[in-house]
Amino acid sequence: MSDRGRFATSTTEGGGALAADDLRAPVRRISTITPMRDEIASVEHFVADLATQDFAGELQVLVADGGSVDGSVERLKAAAEGASLPLEVLGNSAGWVSPGLNACIGRATGDLIVRLDCHSRYPPHYLRRCAELAEQTGAWNVGGRVEPKGETPMERAVACAMDSPFGGIGWTRLGGTEPVEIDTVTFGAFRPVVFSAAGLFDEEMVRNQDDELNLRIRKAGGRIVLDPTLAVRYRPRGSLAKVWRQYYEYGFWKVRVMLKHRAIVTLRSMAPLVFLLMIALLAVAVPFSAIALLLLFAVLVLYLVFALVFALRSVRAEGEPLSLTPRVMSVFPAFHFGYGVGMARGWLAAAGDRRR
């Protein structure tokens, strides 16, 4: 059966423990699922990465196009035909990620469903390693860490900031080589039965759909496993405005995840909002209190010190010139304040909805 009815609805939670045999069965066929919209600059790299995978089994490539107008679909099909890649392009009239992923899942016939992204690059062993990890661990979702790599100076600065614990994803560098259980992985590889137990991607989530599904997986009793040695190369945004917008949306939609599940997903996800509120409260109190002025000054100086220290560490770790440091420092506020403002806006919107 290839229609969406073989899985639970996208908002279903729970479903009981899955059979160990289903979760450790040999992976002989992989279905990759990818949402796409106006990715003409990336589709040839995407096809090339899939064409060089060393997975020995069968491959099914499913891409859901959200209404591309830049010729992405035509270039994708031409590249896939040239590489003899078994490609099927589906329509996604909604335009955003979740409905496209669910459309692909409904057509997937693989023993493992691997969520990919056109904007990222994958090593030749990526699919094989995902299959091995699924077989070995019996986890509901497995994956690797994100390794940001930019090309322009600003993209490289964003990559340095992202790869820092101060920037957001540096905590996934766990300092080991063995797979570890974790709360979420970027993208991920799922056994098909997982979508029956935990549900599909929530189609109301424009952002944070991966985090929300992973939360449902854990609430349903499943495990999520990350292999620190498996890296997905990600090309970050190339301007502070785009970075701010990206993290604003992350913060805004994180509120929807927490409201849906009536729980704080992780404490680290609340840190930017707490920091933003602290700055705002101190700023409001400054006209009435000299202590507030001193505290505000101390907090901002401490933030700049942390930004400088972590920027220098990231620049050195990535082998970048020290001249990139100011750019890296400028990215941290775009991350933190963008996310914090987005989360604040999300809570205000939720309060307004409740009043109405």
CATH class of the largest domain: Alpha Beta
User: Within the CATH hierarchy, at the fold level, what is the topology of the largest domain?
Assistant: Spore Coat Polysaccharide Biosynthesis Protein SpsA, Chain A
Percent of residues in beta strands: 5-15%
From the spread of the alpha carbons, the general shape counts as: globular
Q: In sequence order, what are the helices and strands, one letter per element?
A: HEHEHEHEEHEHEEHHEHHHH
Number of beta strands: 9
Overall domain count:
2
CATH evolutionary superfamily of the largest domain: Spore Coat Polysaccharide Biosynthesis Protein SpsA, Chain A
Secondary-structure arrangement, i.e. CATH architecture of the largest domain: Alpha-Beta Complex
Individual helix count: 12
Terminal CA distance reads 42 Å
SS content category: alpha/beta
Average pLDDT taken over every residue? 87
Poorly predicted regions: 1-16
Structure description:
The chain has helices spanning 20-24, 43-51, 72-82, 97-107, 126-137, 153-162, 193-198, 209-219, 240-261, 271-285, 290-317, 325-355; strands spanning 29-36, 58-65, 87-91, 112-115, 120-121, 141-148, 180-181, 189-190, 224-234. It is an alpha/beta fold. It has 2 domains: 4-237, Spore Coat Polysaccharide Biosynthesis Protein SpsA, Chain A, CATH 3.90.550.10; 259-355, no CATH class. Strands 1, 2, 3, 4, 5, 6, 7, 8 and 9 form a 9-stranded mixed sheet that branches. Helix 3 links the parallel strand 2 (58-65) and strand 3 (87-91). It is globular and about 70 Å long. Residues 1-16 have low confidence and may be disordered.
